[in-house]
TrEMBL record, chain A:
It comes from the Bacteria. This is Alpha-ketoacid dehydrogenase subunit beta. It holds the Pfam family Transketolase_C. InterPro entries: THDP-binding, Transketo_C/PFOR_II, Transketolase-like_Pyr-bd, Transketolase_C. One of its GO terms (molecular function) is oxidoreductase activity. Residues 4-179 form the Transketolase-like pyrimidine-binding domain. The keyword Iron does not apply. Its cofactor is thiamine diphosphate.
Length: 324, 398
């Protein structure tokens, strides 16, 4: 039995990768001496030295570009962007280079880079540090977008991500870093499929990342009023595991999507569209979703709580879909 | 696709009995359609050439869909293809151009199909379609009152055995009554009746001695196939009585009563295997008893084989239900909307009856009336029953 936190699981995954493959190195702001903004890489500098755990200037575009170039040159870089809010500074590198070079070079170059970043709100860090932009990145062909929601996924998703010959983005919801769980010795996950976190028959609650805990809590409350909710953890936002979504909705005939992103043009909108395209005749109620309020995420604790998806909102959305 | 009864939304064209190029005349039967009430023969009200068939056999089309185009005598052939426009619920049964006995109670009296499609989920719609269940017969329990899968499943559970029975009762020629839909049609019409119509009930005991004696004398001189049944006398008596009590003959629609100038008496006919229909015999007040009897026999035969004419099913102005041959003494019938009255006859049973100061045993029939209190009142209803009684005492005038 090995109990560890989400933070430790991620660190363990990086360590394991660096031990297994000398081409793997970690690069980002404060990943070395400071041990990472969220303390994920604490101790790695001491263990692997400054050549493989590299502190960078505050220049996301530059060091992301270096990571892409290193990947093209045969390395297996792990680039840490402090939060997804700052990933926008590296968006040109991610979208115009990482995601396109395989295609534009006719397959001569591929970009096996892994870019990790923290995401999500709920920590009173206000409008510039609380974004959930994973849905945006899921729009881009050429990328794989992972959202580990459990300690186990944090522990095991990195290796297949590094093995992927194309760029993989990992979004770590910052509220999850202190979660802890017992991690089994054997790797138990892939980076292709969604999983059913709770079986149910009345409504599918479809979510990912930082909202999974709220959704599981909501499912528990719904069970108390005899509503059997099935909880789908998408795990991978691109490519979406459409089969898992449609299979669950075909069973429950109802779905509520829970997404910490803003509603307009969101991944939740894409999921709803896929359900309507592929599962229209299985539906027994209009689809519903719980997203963040369409405002810059507020600083004030009560306003921030009101802006983000909550257990109460998930419960009431599910009940409304069922008409009870 | 004519509207052939309250709540009918669509019908399936079963077969064309005439082909393009055929000369057709007013009253011809040109097609058979399958509705919830069974197979119904579609009559035409035009004379001319059947120019083009617009609907393939087997197709289910909404009420109001043109089934065919007819070129009237002298009219130039249509060169451009006929566009299927929404002609309302009277597409085929357009007002007759010929002058003979206008069917006043043509389908414009039939309530239009509900304009609003019932709120139903895609999954419920799919299941209902697979099982041939009419969504308008269901009550939704989903969010916002929508019909959901469980509502369709619940309905199917109730309907299951009836459907099986209906299948068994089907003659080999598939154009026959399917009792699943018929049961639902009855359910819809009767539920609407009891929901909307404030019924009142009257009943009256009639001495049938005079009518029985007259009938026996009449039948004694005739071959069995020419003999009359008491039901024909009663039907005629009702029609004649209604001549002076117009508020019982017509339709209550759109918040007002519309009397009918013709008396088309619906005859409640039970169908083997379950269900019933109440198609009309037209202008009963004008029919001599012998012809009325012939028409009754013919109609009962056809209905029990599941075939009615479109005009019969759609336009009764009043209904008569006779349960006398089942031996019950009296019945309290339910009005078939949008009609405003239904008259019931029980069995003629020997009963003690005061004749002058003495008692006699006489055949007594209970005649009952269910009236729509929005259109008529008990006082006049009582007079109507007494008039029927009076007519039954003078069978020679019938």
């Amino acid at each position: 039995m090995t109990v560890m936190t989400y933070r430790e699981a991620m660190r363990e995954a990086i360590r394991e990768a660096m031990l297994a493959d000398t081409r793997v190195f970690l690069m980002g702001e404060d990943v070395g001496h400071y041990g990472g903004s969220y303390a994920v890489s604490k101790g790695l500098l001491e263990e692997f030295g400054p050549g493989r755990v590299r502190d960078t200037p505050l220049s996301e575009s530059a060091f992301t570009g270096i990571g892409i170039g290193a990947a093209m040159g045969g390395m297996r870089p792990i680039v840490e962007l402090m939060t997804c809010n700052f990933s926008l500074l590296a968006l040109d590198q991610i979208m115009n280079n990482a995601a396109t070079i395989r295609h534009m070079s006719g397959g001569q170059f591929n970009v096996p880079v892994v870019i990790r970043m923290a995401t999500g709100g709920g920590r009173q860090l206000a409008a510039q540090h609380s974004h959930s932009l994973e849905g945006w990145f899921a729009h881009i062909p050429g990328l794989r977008v992972l959202t580990p929601a459990t300690v186990e996924d944090a522990r095991w998703m990195l290796k297949p991500a590094l093995d992927d010959p194309d760029p993989v983005l990992i979004f770590e919801n910052a509220l999850l870093y202190n979660d802890s769980a017992d991690i089994a010795g054997e790797p138990t996950c892939d980076i292709d499929r969604a999983v059913v976190r709770r079986e149910g028959g009345d409504v599918s609650l479809i979510t990912y990342g930082g909202s999974l805990g709220k959704v599981l809590a909501a499912a528990e409350q719904l069970a108390a009023v005899s509503i059997s909710a099935e909880v789908i953890d998408l795990r991978v936002l691109r490519p979406l595991d459409e089969a898992a979504i449609l299979t669950s909705v075909a069973k429950t005939r109802r779905a509520v999507i829970v997404d910490e992103g803003w509603r307009s043009g969101s991944i939740s909108a894409e999921i709803m569209a896929r359900i309507v395209e592929g599962g229209f005749w299985t539906l027994d109620a209009p689809l519903a979703r719980v997203c963040s309020a369409e405002v810059p995420i507020p600083y004030a604790a009560h306003l921030e709580a009101a802006a983000l998806p909550s257990v109460e909102r998930i419960v009431s959305a599910a009940r409304a879909v069922l008409g009870r | 696709m004519p509207s052939l009864g309250a709540g009918m939304e669509a019908g399936t064209l079963v077969e064309w009995l005439r082909k393009p190029g055929d000369a057709i005349a007013h009253g011809d039967i040109i097609a058979v359609v399958e509705t919830e009430k069974g197979a119904i023969e579609v009559e035409v009200f035009e004379t001319g050439i059947l120019e083009k068939l617009l609907v393939e056999p087997g197709s289910k089309v909404p009420v109001g869909t043109p089934l065919a185009s007819i070129r009237a005598e002298g009219e130039a052939a249509v060169v451009t293809p006929v566009v299927a426009v929404d002609a309302g619920p009277v597409a085929v049964e357009a007002p007759p151009l010929t002058v003979e006995a206008p069917p006043v109670a043509a389908p414009e009296h039939v309530p239009p199909p509900p304009s609003a499609v019932p709120l139903a989920s895609p999954a419920a719609r799919k299941l209902a379609q697979e099982r041939g269940i009419d969504l308008s017969a269901l009550t939704g329990t989903g969010a916002g009152g929508a019909i959901v899968v469980s509502d369709v499943e619940g309905h199917a559970d109730v309907q299951g055995p009836t459907d099986v029975e209906g299948q068994a009762a089907k003659p080999a020629a598939s154009a026959a009554a399917d009792l699943g839909p018929m049961r639902r049609a009855i359910a819809a019409a009767m539920a609407r009746s009891k929901r909307e119509i404030p019924h009142y009930y009257l009943s009256h005991s009639m001495d049938m001695s005079a009518a029985t004696a007259w009938l026996n004398a009449y039948n004694a001189q005739r071959l069995p196939e020419q003999r009359l049944l008491m039901g024909a006398l009663q039907l005629k008596a009702v029609a004649l009585a209604l001549l002076d009590y117009g508020e019982f003959n017509g339709f209550y629609e759109d918040g007002k009563f519309q009397p009918s100038s013709s008396i088309h008496t619906g005859l409640a006919i039970s169908i083997r295997g379950g269900g019933l229909a109440a198609p009309a015999i037209h202008d009963v007040d004008k029919l001599p008893l012998a012809r009325l009897m012939t028409q009754m026999r013919e109609l009962v035969g056809r209905v029990r084989n599941g075939r009615f004419h479109s005009s019969e099913i759609s336009d009764p102005t009043v209904t008569v239900s006779n349960l006398g041959d089942r031996g019950v003494e009296a019945l309290l019938p339910v009005i078939y909307p949008p009609q405003v009255a239904i008259i019931g006859f029980g069995a003629a049973l020997p009963r003690p009856w005061a004749v002058g100061d003495a008692l006699a045993v006489r055949p007594i029939v209970q005649v009952s009336l269910a009236g729509d209190h929005r259109a008529n009142d008990g006082h006049r209803g009582a007079l109507l029953l007494l008039r029927i009684d009076k007519l039954m005492q003078e069978p020679g005038v019938l």
